[in-house]
């Protein structure tokens, strides 16, 4: 066959071409797929909304168990603080499912949950915390004397009386005490202890004193008719002049003595007292008393 050197042009009449359209079967299949997808999505949304996600999954193949009843154990009730309940997990959002034929799912059966056995809880009573108690403060006492007596006493600048002053109740601490008598003034700082008695005696200057001792102790002594104590003792704060001293004791003779004191003089007395019924010791004169005779001087 001979080869043609020239080709004849092919003329296509475009005006006579026909439109190419897809068949209608594909459109119907698309519509059906959309309907099926809507039905599956609606069923999935209904299942997710009505399903209890807190309930554990049940084994359908496991045999049904009978509920076990437990005998409640009597316990002491207790007060339990409220416990914050855990918030349920959020439901996952509905996910788009692929286009597929839905398969029927088994309907969940509402099986009754076994009721928990009633138990009585013990009440734990909280004992109230004891508030710290402050230590109780015990006051002390102050006894003041002066020689001579009847001196004015001021405590921290306040007049509280005259000497003798006994059993004046004060709180523990330091106090300034001032004694005043006949123009003389003396200030002392005294400490008061808790539950104790503090005794202080102030002797003013320019006054005399008598120290009295007796052969028998614990004799009652009075000066100018005023009892001052038992022997032995020292009477302070005596002015210049005469003083009548009386010493007495049960079962003994009473002794009276007069003493004269000068200004600021201090004397000591030692007084002998005798028992009742005893005689005074005879005085012995060595000149008139017979001399003992020696055996060589005796006459045969």
UniProtKB/TrEMBL annotation:
Region (Disordered): 83-130, 278-300
Record domain PEGA: where: 141-183, 208-275
Keyword Transmembrane included in the entry's annotation: yes
InterPro entries from the UniProt entry: PEGA
Keywords, in A-Z order: Membrane, Transmembrane, Transmembrane helix
UniProt feature coiled coil, ranges: none
Signal peptide start and end residues: none
Transmembrane segments: 26-48
Record field: compositional bias (Pro residues): 103-117
Top-level taxonomic group: Bacteria
Annotated Pfam families: PEGA
PANTHER family per the UniProt record, alphabetical: S-LAYER-LIKE PROTEIN
UniProt name for this protein: PEGA domain-containing protein
Organism of derivation: Candidatus Moduliflexus flocculans
């Amino acid at each position: 066959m001979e080869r043609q050197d020239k080709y004849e042009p092919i003329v296509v009449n475009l005006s006579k071409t026909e439109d190419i359209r897809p068949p209608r079967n594909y459109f119907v299949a698309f519509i059906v797929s959309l309907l099926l997808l809507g039905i599956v999505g609606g069923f999935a949304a209904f299942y997710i909304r009505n399903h209890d996600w807190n309930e554990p999954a049940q084994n359908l193949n496991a045999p049904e168990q009978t509920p076990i009843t437990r005998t409640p154990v009597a316990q002491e009730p207790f007060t339990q603080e409220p416990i914050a309940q855990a918030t349920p997990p959020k439901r996952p959002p509905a996910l788009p499912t692929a286009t597929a034929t839905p398969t029927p799912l088994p309907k969940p059966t509402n099986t009754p949950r076994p009721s928990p056995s009633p138990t009585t809880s013990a009440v734990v009573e909280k004992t109230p915390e004891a508030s710290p108690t402050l230590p109780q403060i015990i006051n002390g006492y102050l006894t003041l004397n002066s020689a001579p007596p009847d001196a004015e006493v001021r405590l921290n600048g306040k007049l509280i009386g005259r000497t003798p002053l006994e059993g004046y109740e004060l709180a523990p601490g330091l106090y300034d005490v001032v004694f005043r008598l006949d123009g003389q003034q003396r200030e002392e700082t005294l400490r008061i202890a808790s539950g104790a008695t503090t005794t202080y005696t102030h002797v003013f200057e320019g006054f005399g004193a008598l120290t009295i001792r007796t052969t028998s102790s614990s004799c009652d002594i009075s000066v100018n008719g005023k009892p001052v104590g038992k022997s032995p003792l020292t009477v302070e704060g005596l002015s210049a002049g005469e003083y009548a001293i009386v010493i007495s004791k049960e079962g003994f003779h009473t002794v009276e003595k007069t003493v004269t004191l000068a200004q600021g003089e201090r004397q000591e007395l030692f007084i002998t007292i005798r028992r009742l019924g005893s005689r005074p010791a005879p005085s012995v004169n060595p000149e008139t008393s017979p001399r003992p005779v020696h055996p060589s001087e005796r006459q045969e």
